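User: Hello! My lab partner asked me to get a predicted holo structure for this protein. The small molecule is zinc ion, SMILES included with the sequence. Please write out the structure tokens.
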Amino acid sequence: MSEQGGAWSDWLAIYEQAYASPTALREQACPRCAARELSLVFTERSVGGDGYANLWCGHCLHGIHVSRSLIPEGATVIPRGSTAEQENLVIPDCRLVWPDGDDGEQHENESEVF
Ligand SMILES: [Zn+2]
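Assistant: Hello! Below are the structure tokens for the protein in complex with zinc ion.
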């Protein structure tokens, strides 16, 4: 299984730039398919203003999740308490890219111990 292009580090670099300057995302090409259809949306998880980031390409439908991010000023946010349905209206069903070729099946539950 080899994923050509669009390594985690490429996505993360774009995320970091978009985080610092949300409008710069429009100038960024997808690391996988080079389309300029990237979106960054934050899912709010707490009143403290943190949540996780969803970065994806609307063309090839690949992307990443970045957990525990502080939501930056002016970002697109899915408010706390939204249903999965509401979330799906904003975020399409994407194939997630994980660090180091990890398939990342159950990354949501980091508390699980082997
Ligand atoms: Zn793409």
